Amino acid sequence: MASRSLPRRSAAAPPAEDGVPLHERVRFRGLLMVAVMGASIMQILDTTIANVAIPHMQSALGATSETVTWVLTSYILASAIAMPITGWLADRIGRRELFLGAIAGFIATSMACGAAQSLEQMVVFRFLQGISAAFIAPLSQSVMLDINPPERQARAMSIWGMGIMIGPIMGPLLGGWLTESVNWRWVFYVNLPVGLLTLAMMWALLPATRAAGRKFDLFGFSMLALGLASLQLMLDRGAHEDWFDSIEIWIECGVAIACLWMFVVHMFTARAPLFNRAMLADRNLVTAMGFLVVIGIVMFASMALLPPMLQNLFGWPVIDTGVVLAVRGIGILASMWFAGRTLDTIDARWMVGIGLLIASYSLWQMSHWSLEMGMQPVIVSGMIQGVGMGLVFIPLNTMAFATIAPHFRTDGSSLLNLFRSIGASVGISIVTTLLGANIQRSHEDLVAHVTNSSTSLLDPSTADRFGIAGDTAMAMVNAEINRQAAMVAYIDDFWLMMWVTLASVPLVLLLRPPKPGTEKASMADMGH
Predict the structure, then answer these.
(1) Does residue 284 sit within a domain?
(2) Residue 81 to residues 35, 86, 168, 233, 425: CA-CA distances in angstroms?
(3) What are phi and psi of 452, to 5 degrees?
(4) pLDDT at residue 177, rounded to an integer
(5) Residue 41 forms part of a structural domain
(6) What is the CATH number of the domain that holds 29?
(7) Which one, 78, 175, 254, 508, has least CB within 10 Å?
(8) Do 360 and 493 belong to one domain?
(9) Which of 440, 371, 415, 104 lies closest to 282 in space, CA to CA?
């Protein structure tokens, strides 16, 4: 990549004991990139692959529809708590050691999840799996940057981004196929062959980096972990507990606000905070965090809405739904390939802005869907949305790391992945809550228009005279009203996501293109 996209000094990899940059010490770089991507895809798949198997787990583990959701909640909570300390652990014990340990832990806990015999065991194993998964995503991103020279880093980010963006799309498809063809336990067992191969390649090829004596900010981590855990619990359980009509949600909201506020104050006042203030003073990194919240909302919230909509309202089989949604991966691959190859000639800010506008257009298309349409509108809008998200993701990550010192990369990557995860949780929580409320409101509006003149074959006021036949006819009318009301509610959610995406476009003005030859020595000194 040309110097206008990445400063020369900041692109250097963290040195090892001999002072040689990491990208100059790597043997078989291509194989190592395959191994890193294998670990990354394995981890990101597990954020969605288990969702399809939840009904089967419920019956096998003897859980209720309420308690089985802890299989998903425990994983999310563990990842949110552990991810912020990735940088500290990498400095303390070495990034190679942490990466290998995280992959080994992920394999072991995946096997334990597949063998679980009770809900309690499953929740504990999923929590431990979430801790291992929390380290893999930021470590894979920072390693991909450091093992490539400056001119290849944009392409490395495009390869890494393909796995991050396509993983959640392929997860439900793979999970549905494994659940129907083999057994729900293979949703977890499938990690064994991929994980062992990845672990062996990483063990042989990943060079070590120098460990650093870095003080642990126990108070800052405690406040951040407790705040994030409370926020994730509130978002995950809010819809089920009827939000602020529940004392539990009030408590979780209060704890989240109090702890996160104390963490922010501590960050600005502590002598040695959890994250270096010099890193958080970088405008590109902070702006990228805000953009990744939007990406989390648009990408993951839409992926949470579409499968139930297509299966329940349109009656599509699980496999057909997965295949149609997976087509958007073509758009993501194409735009990420384009972005990785043209970042040295096109201003990355233009690319991000255009990508957001394209994603907004796809959501506008989705807001015009109807119950009479076929597969084509879903495929077309999915591909367009994939193109938009791909154009945003790669330039954004490139600019986020272009202006910070190399030794901040692991910390910065953990924050970027954390904010993307928070955006996904917030987005899914908001759209599912609004979906339920809008279905009720739309149902009331539609029922008000059901009269004897609008239903020529049936007079609702006299249907009870026909006994069972009349009740059956009214049930059919009500079912169709529910179906139409649900479609209206989905369209309202797509409109909301469109406006959120458009509102984020002006944030592009906050990004600054790195200047050729920009030196990062001053920031590096501040970091030490």
Answers:
(1) yes
(2) 26, 10, 21, 12, 14
(3) -65, -25
(4) 79
(5) yes
(6) 1.20.1250.20
(7) 254
(8) yes
(9) 415
Q: Please answer whether residues 80 and 232 qualify as being in contact, where contact means their C-beta atoms are separated by less than 8 angstroms.
A: yes
170 and 135, same domain (yes or no): yes
Same-domain check for residues 146 and 172: yes
The label of the residue with tokens 């288990």 reads 50
In order of 6, 408, 481, 513, the CA distances from 516 in angstroms are: 8, 20, 61, 9
Residues 266 and 404 both lie in one domain: no
Give residue-wise pLDDT tens across range 467-522.
555 456 556 666 777 788 888 888 998 998 899 889 888 888 887 765 544 333 33
| 115 CB-side CA count, 13 A | 7
Q: Say if residue 167 is in the same domain as residue 201.
A: yes
pLDDT for the residue numbered 506: 87
Tell me the average pLDDT of the chain.
Answer: 78
Residue type for position 60: A
Res 317: pLDDT: 77
Please indicate, yes or no, if residue 465 is contained in any of the structural domains. Answer: no
Buried b or exposed e, range 386-406, using 16+ CB within 10 angstroms: bbbbbbbbbbbbbbbbbbbbb
Binning pLDDT at 50, 70 and 90, where does residue 360 land? very high
For residues 213 and 259, state if they share a domain: no
Among 162-166, 262-266, 338-342, whose mean pLDDT is lowest? 162-166
Residue 64 included in any domain = yes
Question: In this model, does residue 1 exceed pLDDT 60?
Answer: no
Our count of domains for the chain comes to 2
Helix 29-45 to helix 153-181 angle, to the nearest 10 degrees? 50
* H or E element at residue 466: none
Of the residues 227, 250, 273, the one at which a domain ends = 273
Q: Which two tokens stand for residue 228?
A: 């994030």
pLDDT score of 450: 64
- CA distance linking residue 85 with residue 123, whole number of Å: 22
